[in-house]
Amino acid sequence: MTRDDLFNINANIVKTLVEAVADNCPDAFIHVISNPVNSTVPIAAEVLKQKGVYDPKKLFGVTTLDVVRANTFVAEKKNLKLIDVDVPVIGGHAGITILPLLSKTKPSVRFSDEEVEQLTIRIQNAGTEVVEAKAGAGSATLSMAYAAARFVESSLRALDGDGDVYECSFVQSDLTDLPFFASRVKLGRKGIEAMIPSDLQGLSEYEEKALEALKPELKASIEKGIAFAQKQPVTA
Questions:
Q1: Catalytic site residue from 69, 93, 104, 184
Q2: How confident is the model at residue 236 (pLDDT cuts 50, 70, 90)?
Q3: What is the pLDDT of residue 58?
Q4: Considering the domain 1-236 in this protein, what is its CATH number?
Q5: What SUPFAM superfamilies does UniProt report for this protein, alphabetically (predicted)?
Q6: Catalytic annotation on 31?
Q7: What does pTM read for this prediction?
């Protein structure tokens, strides 16, 4: 199933669910994990705007699965303890729009150019790897559930007053020239407390080129979601 197929199935589902959230609990944190996230988050934003309750600090595209995969693959490659590894992943949540910032891996490790390319491609295509391993009989449902649970737990910690909660998420952003962008954010009781612009500074040459290369595809996906929502008026 392509992401276009997913869009045709999920776009209206997301629209309907977000309308219900807007009507019944407009102050809630909204976590969008339905693919294609690059389009469904803009759909959710437009619906909330039409309902007059849009708060960009409380709308999140859950891209945690990309971080989980990046951390896992790096830990395996470099023989590190998984719990110690943190790789920020920026951009979007599909194919080349997924950009792991391996140069900013914690703890600091060195990668050859070949390792960077291999790891980046594997992280971008990990969903396909799972589907192929299951011979078409399923997808990455368990890891997606884990990623969702992790992001929900982080949100609950932030709502409870924990002042040290950071996650990567696809959100309304001014870090680039795109209206939505996945990056690391600090979570608080009112949603996003801060972006982390330093994550986009000092990128490697490979990452700089990959960032520019992903923008056209991500821009098109965002615009597709916005156009869908604007053509589908919300229910009163």
A1: 93
A2: low
A3: 98
A4: 3.90.110.10
A5: LDH C-terminal domain-like, NAD(P)-binding Rossmann-fold domains
A6: no
A7: 0.95
